[in-house]
Design a protein that fits this description.
60s Ribosomal Protein L30, Chain: A, about 230 residues, about 35% helix, alpha/beta
């Protein structure tokens, strides 16, 4: 996987301790960010200098003169995630926008939520855009991929989790007392949570809309709900 941009590369170099996931760093020949170069040298990482057009071919996003090559993201299985003894989890029901996934990852990492569960099919997966939007927080978050969300929810219920879905037909999110072991479900941008997933929920909640629009961006809604979940 390719990570591009000074802030993204710097955050990973500063915070990610398992340096074996970083294959190499590539800079333009005139790259002179001494703090980043110092971190690369300190971690004894392979460093290459190339022409700008060579980095342009490698990176889809604005690379700002530096890219990092990493191994593919390591998803956890559900069993592996549960072995971390989580109490607060997020399920993303077929989210499609990588910018939303990246922003939610960043909120999850900042809030201390224990992990994210996503389906393997018909959904956005971790890619360069997700990495860039998450601003280096990706490798600090447990992300689990599952084949069947409904079966996953059944397993989580057996483990003592309560399932909270989000939908405009639910009750006010501020009126619910959230259990200690909770799973929050955020639906897709276009269709919300699917019917079978909704039927598996213990609570359905909504964020009241007082303006002329009737919905929020998925990552904004997730941010509001995550901090309410933590606060309660």
């Amino acid at each position: 996987m390719i990570v591009s941009g000074r802030n993204n590369v710097k955050e990973i170099l500063k915070n990610f301790k398992e340096k074996n996931i970083i294959k190499k760093v590539i800079c333009t020949k005139n790259f002179n960010e001494k703090d980043i170069l110092s971190l690369v040298e300190k971690m004894n990482l392979p460093l290459e200098f190339k022409e700008k057009f060579e980095l342009d071919r490698l990176a889809k996003n604005n690379h700002q003169g530096i890219i990092m090559i990493t191994s593919d993201f390591n998803y956890l299985s559900l069993d592996e995630l549960l072995r971390t003894n989580p109490s607060k989890l997020i399920i993303l029901d077929h989210l499609e926008d990588p910018h939303n996934l990246g922003a939610i990852i960043r909120t999850v990492e900042a809030s201390g939520v224990n992990g994210i569960i996503i389906p393997k099919n018909r959904t956005v997966s971790v890619n360069e855009t997700v990495m860039k939007t998450s601003v280096g927080s990706l490798f600090n978050v447990n992300i689990c991929q599952v084949t069947n969300l409904n079966q996953t929810i059944k397993t989580l219920k057996k483990k003592g989790f309560w399932i909270i879905g989000t939908d405009m037909d639910g009750e006010n999110y501020q009126s619910v007392k959230y259990p200690d072991k909770s799973v929050l479900i955020i639906g897709s941008e276009g269709f919300g949570i699917s019917r079978l997933v909704r039927e598996s929920c213990d609570y359905i909640v909504k964020i009241p809309m007082n303006g002329k629009i009737n919905s929020l961006n998925a990552s904004v809604a997730a941010g509001i709900m995550i901090y309410e979940l933590i606060r309660k």
